Amino acid sequence: MRLLTSVAALRCYLTKRCLENKLIAVPEDLVLDEVGSWQQTAVGLVPTMGNLHQGHLSLIQRARQENSTVIVSIFVNPLQFGPNEDYQRYPRSLDQDRQLCEQAGVNAIFAPTPEEMAVPQKSIEESKVTQVIPPSAMITGLCGRSRLGHFQGVATIVAKLFNLIKPDRAYFGQKDGQQLAIIKRLVADLDLSVEIVSCPTVREVSGLALSSRNQYLTATEKEQAAVLYRGLQRAEAAFKAGVRNSSKLIAMVQQEVATISKVFVEYIELVEPTTLMNLEKIEEEGMLAIAARLGSTRLIDNTILCDRQPIIAIDGPAGAGKSTVARQVATELGLVYLDSGAMYRAITWLVLQKGIAIDDECAIAELANQCEIQLIPSEDLQSPVRVWINNIDVTQAIRSLEVTSNVSAIAAQNAVRQALIEQQHSWGKKGGLVAEGRDIGTHVFPNAELKIFLTASVNERARRRQQDFNKQGQPEVSLEQLERDIAERDWKDSTRKVSPLQKAADAIEVQTDSLNVSEVTAQIVNYYQQRLSQW
């Protein structure tokens, strides 16, 4: 692991790392039974202010799973501290942080001084540095009321880090919900080519959200501070029981927090999670956020309240039987089957029909953003979803060997993914879906109530694929050739920069070699009913 303290060293490291990744070759006799055993070529960034704890380590672990290079930035940013805030006494523990990062498999730490980042050691209100100013409505509410200039300071430094490191993904915790929303907006508005990955809040046994500032608390104060989470839990229980009104949900948090007289509430608010606009009633989704002081320590926390039916996300490698199983699960549970794989296949079919080269990403990007895909329920048990693209029924055509051979290369292109994921997200808002693909649980629906990773050996998947081709009247393909094709597909899917095939950390793995479709379906339905009973 490298410790880099200058911009020049950082740039040198990134250039060298990029060249090393380009040298990774695929052996001619590649056969993968373990998806993800080959490294990706993407760069993951975990921005921190140091004094690392288990919450930071959970971000690093997620980044480690999804990228070949993981960089942790450690920078106590003077621009995000107000004149009377704790910049000088903010905990700094670089030696300890360095050990934790090395143990966690981090490739490099970027720990510059304020001078190296070209920012003075003063608040952003006093600074003359060029600033990134998020929308006023997003930075004046919640924490923005008491921390003037804070989010300008955050956005300015995060934008600098993105520009210097140019990560494929950056990882942030949901605990800082306002910051997360602002950074997502920053990336969208400035067209930055980085994916923002939101990770769950990590908590102590008491429920207190982990924070570097928790070390300011005494043991007694830590116990008292857990009341914030208890208040949010009480409101969450009421929400699940049907309460949707903002004032009632907020009142429940207030009542719980009031049981600890030493906790002084700064705000309790219900806002829309992406725009941060206040909500009077939750129609689809809301973030219930709280900030309070205990002694000299300021604490924040939040919970996402989502009014939708459950989502089942089924991921896994090619040929694992995801489509067949997902269709049956949806039928048994009365949920909607979202065939994301068919959407990528439809785009691939259209690319081939238009005679566009598979590596012509510019032309494919235009095509993906201009075409119209429809998934229409059907009474045909073999094809319960009819797939249309630009008013052409391609349900059968997208299952051809030519489409199958090229879909991975198309799906790996960022523009294609972005074009399709917007439509998938719109379908997911109401929930009640069974969705399958290769990044459904990790990227498309990371908050799905049930995540399944469906897999099987290369030999078994090749045998199933050969049976499918024979039933469809496709040209004969040898088992050996199919094994090579599937192994190469696994490698492409698990090493691509854009949403590589990975098992989500909270997914249940189902190995299907010795199971038939009905048995796999029964397992997933059982898991779903167990999760539903825990709501």
Q: How many beta-strand runs?
A: 17
What's the shape? Answer: globular
Percentage of residues in strands: 15-25%
Low-confidence stretches: 30-39
What class, by secondary structure content? alpha/beta
Helix proportion: 40-55%
User: So how many helices?
Assistant: 18
- How far is the first residue's CA from the last residue's CA? 42 Å
How is the biggest beta sheet arranged? 6 strands, parallel
User: Could you report the average pLDDT, rounded to the nearest whole number?
Assistant: 89
Order of strands across the main sheet? 1-4-3-2-5-6
Cα radius of gyration in angstroms: 25 Å
Q: How would you describe what is shown here?
A:
Helix 10 (322-333) crosses helix 18 (517-533). 43% of the residues are buried. The protein has a 6-stranded parallel beta sheet, with helices on both faces. A 5-stranded parallel beta sheet has the order 11-15-10-16-17, sandwiched between helices. It has helices at 7-22, 54-66, 94-103, 136-139, 150-165, 177-189, 219-225, 227-240, 246-257, 322-333, 340-353, 361-370, 401-411, 414-428, 440-444, 458-472, 479-495, 517-533; strands at 2-4, 43-48, 69-74, 108-110, 169-173, 195-199, 263-271, 285-294, 297-306, 311-315, 336-339, 373-377, 385-389, 392-393, 433-437, 450-455, 508-511. The longest helix is centred in the last third of the chain and has 17 residues, at 479-495. The chain is α/β, with parallel strands linked by helices and 535 residues long. The protein has 18 helices and 17 strands.
